[in-house]
Amino acid sequence: MNDSIETPRILVQRLLPNAQPPRYAHQGAYGDLAADLFAAEATTLTPGQTLAVRTGLAMELPSTHGALVEDRSGLAIRGITTLAGVIDPGYRGELKIVLTNLSKEPQEIAPGHRIAQLRIVRRIEARFEETDTLAEAPRGTGGFGSTGQ
User: 68: closest CA among 35, 28, 109?
Assistant: First the structure.
């Protein structure tokens, strides 16, 4: 790990007795990019349904950092995806994970199941300036499918 990068300190408050703090499955030099988040309550996602699943946790992120909620590959392959995954540093409420079941089968979520990943990111506040033109770039205006693949 690069010692020149300060590790952010994130306070985690347990709101439900069985809530589990986020944790990295693999740590060290080649560890995980994001920490696992766990369901605190049981629920069933019916096909096409979107629900906010409770983690039973609230966090205090430093003003310099935020977090992004990402899919877990094991759930994504089963058709469960996350939505609305930005956590601002000033938010202090319960972290709920918005899950959607894209599969044709009901999906059971039990307390303690890993339901998403939490990626901590440095907060950068950009300055947006309006302009009439943009500099040329090799990609130009090519968007979705522009590489032909």
Answer: 35
Q: What is the CA radius of gyration of the chain?
A: 19
pLDDT tens, position by position, 65-79: 999 999 999 999 999
> Is 127 within a domain?
no
In a domain, 60, yes or no: yes
> Where do we find the tokens 């995980």?
32
Cα–Cα distance, 143 to 26 (Å, whole number): 35
| Residue 19 near residue 41, CB atoms below 8 Å | no
List of the chain residues with pLDDT < 50: 1
User: If phi over 0 gives left and psi between -120 and 50 gives alpha, with beta otherwise, what is residue 3?
Assistant: alpha
Residue 113 lies in a domain: yes
Query: Is 63 inside a domain boundary?
Result: yes
Segments forming the whole domain that contains residue 17: 13-122
Comparing C-alpha atoms, which of 27, 43, 46 is closest to residue 96?
43
